[in-house]
Specification:
- By secondary structure, the protein is mainly alpha-helical.
- The longest helix has about 30 residues.
- It contains 2 helices and 2 strands, in the order αββα.
- The chain has a two-stranded antiparallel ribbon.
- It holds the Pfam family DUF4212.
- InterPro entries: Na_symporter_ssu (IPR019886).
- It comes from Bordetella bronchialis.
- This is Sodium symporter small subunit domain-containing protein.
């Protein structure tokens, strides 16, 4: 009969069962929030690209948003997730 990694003797990699549920729920909410932010960062500049038709350093501003703004935003989302989860792992 297989045994689980978290045994009654305390050997395991963290809380098991019901104790892990709040952490998992928090993680799911965080992922959904960051996914919504990622979607907005991807879709909104493309939707409003016609309204962003002014020149910025010789190129349309919508180009700068797509070429530099979105990748920097994605990087910020990744850094935020890593920092939040690093703090959550320290609390557990």
């Amino acid at each position: 009969m297989p045994t689980s990694r978290s045994s009654a003797s305390g050997h395991g990699d963290g809380p098991a069962g019901p104790a892990r549920a709040p952490l998992w729920g928090r993680n799911v909410r965080l992922v959904l929030l960051l996914l919504a932010l990622w979607s907005a960062l991807t879709l909104l500049p493309a939707y409003f690209a016609r309204d962003l038709m002014f020149s910025f350093m010789g190129w349309p501003f919508s180009y700068w948003m797509a070429a530099y703004g979105a990748p920097l935003g994605y990087l910020a989302i990744i850094v935020a997730y890593a920092r939040i989860m690093n703090g959550a792992d320290g609390d557990a």
